[in-house]
């Protein structure tokens, strides 16, 4: 990307006012109002080109006008632009987007870790650009064109969503230049898988339209990674639509799946009917709002503000993953509190988190905390049709080598050997692997019995 262009954009940031386009106010089902279309003061113009809102020079279909869409003309060409303002307070799901201003700073550890920043700076909400694209394909190759670029940002009293659309390839350069202007004073792109998909697609398009990489690319705040860290074992998937329903309390109605966006765009190109794109605009807009709401969610976790509530309401697996994630981002004290709350729970579910937490305690030498977790996991395994034997192994090792109670070590080894045989009958398994596992437990049991016998002889002497 051309660093010189970015510098010129900064110098020419003096805003050229557009003629007033007026505002349409839409009342949503919850009674809140959003404003569609922006006045001259509301359009933050940051391109090197003179951006002029359409004022009758070019007629566009009524279908676009009903969506609050207008034509933006620049020295590089034209494109369509829709602007929607959400005055604060505005809830998207359970979170008020007004909280972004106070919560964004808590997301700094996530951004620092994702970008491996040598000199990390605190996040400022005014420097975040929430980005989502709709493209003609699924790959990141040069042939995949972002026909719609949606982005959001915070103002002092509202969250603003802008959506740029190209009606033909000739409008792409003007749209990309407009995006560059919006990125000029932003430090981070907030996305969902944007680091892997949206940004590489845009970089390819910048290059094909004459820009070259030069200088530092924007940093990323990609919420797909925290979502997977917390919910990969508890949600059906970590798709954004699933996350927003299950964790943000937002349910879309009559949503057009993103996978249909290319088909609908090609229909529009075929007959020029804007109605094909109505659902695509709404879907893209909701994606951006969900990114903002998700930012608040993770910021709240890192702020410790609702820690007690989360500890009470979250399932054990999610609570464990949350504690690990917080620890990874420098919140060791909070993590320890959650680990302790977790260890007190009686319901261990499938036992995966239980064994992981016990292993964590073992590595730090806190065997007294690991022991009850292994015992719970062993009890769970003995009731399972396909038992896992990790807990029995840890208990056999603990009682043989640390507690020196060989009778208990023998008991867990015998039980494990019984479970191995039972599992072989109930679950189809690799015969060689089953034989190896059985022989391993037989050797362990024989060794502990022999050790117990020698100890018994010494005691009798």
From TrEMBL:
<dbReference type="InterPro" id="IPR036397">
    <property type="entry name" value="RNaseH_sf"/>
</dbReference>
<feature type="compositionally biased region" description="Basic and acidic residues">
    <location>
        <begin position="1"/>
        <end position="10"/>
    </location>
</feature>
<protein>
    <submittedName>
        <fullName>Ribonuclease H-like domain-containing protein</fullName>
    </submittedName>
</protein>
<dbReference type="InterPro" id="IPR038720">
    <property type="entry name" value="YprB_RNase_H-like_dom"/>
</dbReference>
<dbReference type="InterPro" id="IPR012337">
    <property type="entry name" value="RNaseH-like_sf"/>
</dbReference>
<dbReference type="Pfam" id="PF13482">
    <property type="entry name" value="RNase_H_2"/>
</dbReference>
<keyword id="KW-0175">Coiled coil</keyword>
<feature type="coiled-coil region">
    <location>
        <begin position="431"/>
        <end position="458"/>
    </location>
</feature>
<feature type="domain" description="YprB ribonuclease H-like">
    <location>
        <begin position="129"/>
        <end position="296"/>
    </location>
</feature>
<feature type="region of interest" description="Disordered">
    <location>
        <begin position="1"/>
        <end position="24"/>
    </location>
</feature>
């Amino acid at each position: 990307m051309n660093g010189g262009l970015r510098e010129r954009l900064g110098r020419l940031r003096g805003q050229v006012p557009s003629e007033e386009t007026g505002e349409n106010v839409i009342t949503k089902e919850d009674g809140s109002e959003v404003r569609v279309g922006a006045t001259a003061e509301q359009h933050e113009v940051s391109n090197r080109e003179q951006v002029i809102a359409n004022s009758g020079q070019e007629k566009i279909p009524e279908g676009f006008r009903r969506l609050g869409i207008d034509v933006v003309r620049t020295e590089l060409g034209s494109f369509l632009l829709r602007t929607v303002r959400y005055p604060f307070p505005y809830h998207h799901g359970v979170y008020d987007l007004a909280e972004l201003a106070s919560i964004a700073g808590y997301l700094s550890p996530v951004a620092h870790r994702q970008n491996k920043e040598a000199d990390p700076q605190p996040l400022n909400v005014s420097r975040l650009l929430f980005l989502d694209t709709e493209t003609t394909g699924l790959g990141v190759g040069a042939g995949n064109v972002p026909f719609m670029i949606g982005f959001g940002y915070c103002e002092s009293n509202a969250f603003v969503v802008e959506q740029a659309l190209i009606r033909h390839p000739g409008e792409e350069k003007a749209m990309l230049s407009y995006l560059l202007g919006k990125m000029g004073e932003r430090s981070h792109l907030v996305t969902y898988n944007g680091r892997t998909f949206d940004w590489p697609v845009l970089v390819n398009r910048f290059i094909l339209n004459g820009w070259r990489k030069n200088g530092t690319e924007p940093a990323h705040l990609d919420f797909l990674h925290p979502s997977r860290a917390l919910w990969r074992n508890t949600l059906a998937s970590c798709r954004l639509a699933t996350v927003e329903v299950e964790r943000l309390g937002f349910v879309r109605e009559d949503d057009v799946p993103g996978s249909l966006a290319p088909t609908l765009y090609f229909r529009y190109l075929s007959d020029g009917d804007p109605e094909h794109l109505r659902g695509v605009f709404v879907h893209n807009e909701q994606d951006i709002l969900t990114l903002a709401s998700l930012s608040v969610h993770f910021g709240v976790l890192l702020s410790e503000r609702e820690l007690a509530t989360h500890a009470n309401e979250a399932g054990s697996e999610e609570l464990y993953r949350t504690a690990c994630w917080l620890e990874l981002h420098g919140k060791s004290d909070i993590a320890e509190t959650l680990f302790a709350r977790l260890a007190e729970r009686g319901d261990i579910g499938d036992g995966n988190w239980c064994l992981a937490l016990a292993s964590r305690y073992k590595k730090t030498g806190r065997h007294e905390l690991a022991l009850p977790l292994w015992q719970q996991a062993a009890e769970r395994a003995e009731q399972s049709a396909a038992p896992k034997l990790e807990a029995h192994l840890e208990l056999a090792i603990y009682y043989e080598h640390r507690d020196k109670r060989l009778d208990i070590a023998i008991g867990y080894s015998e039980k494990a050997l019984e479970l191995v045989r039972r599992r072989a009958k109930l679950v189809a398994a690799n015969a060689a692997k089953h034989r190896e596992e059985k022989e391993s437990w037989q050797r362990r049991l024989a060794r502990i019995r022999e050790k117990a016998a020698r100890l018994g002889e010494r005691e009798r002497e």
